[in-house]
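User: I'm putting together notes for a lab meeting next week and I want to include a structural view of one of the chains we've been expressing. I don't have a solved structure, so I'd like a prediction I can at least talk through. The sequence is below, exactly as it appears in our construct file.
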Amino acid sequence: MLKKLEEVGGERILLDSDILIDYLRGEKESKELIVYLLENSKCYLTAINIAEIYSDKDLSDPQKEFIIDNFLKNFNFILLYKEISKTAGSLGRKDNLPLADAFIGAASLIYDIILITRNIKDFQKIIGLKIFHTLLKFKN
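Assistant: Thanks for the context. Below is the predicted structure for the 140-residue chain, given as structure tokens.
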């Protein structure tokens, strides 16, 4: 089920890594979206998001890492426990999803929160997942 931005205000949301990485690279549309979400919603991340952010090649500069550490303090974190891991494995197998996406999708499903992503191609395969699809820098 795709959601509109005005429907996301006040909701609990999970941000996909693509939006976060664009924000950290200074992309205006992603910055505006994340500022809006942080002001109007309860925003969550998972350990997978953190790993994907810190794997970015642009992070060789310790000052950038410091900035990211401070930025991430704005978010709540979802722990990846056994039920999420089992669901992620099932989604990966059943829907042929990359494991990172399967974990993010599973966390969103189990916590019943909206996922904000540009990656509609993979996440739309997950039945029952609430998705806000942003067209920011959309790539297939």
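A couple of points you could mention at the meeting. Residues 136-140 have pLDDT under 50 and may be disordered. The helical segments are 5-8, 17-24, 28-40, 47-54, 62-72, 82-95, 99-111, 120-123.

User: Perfect, that's what I needed.
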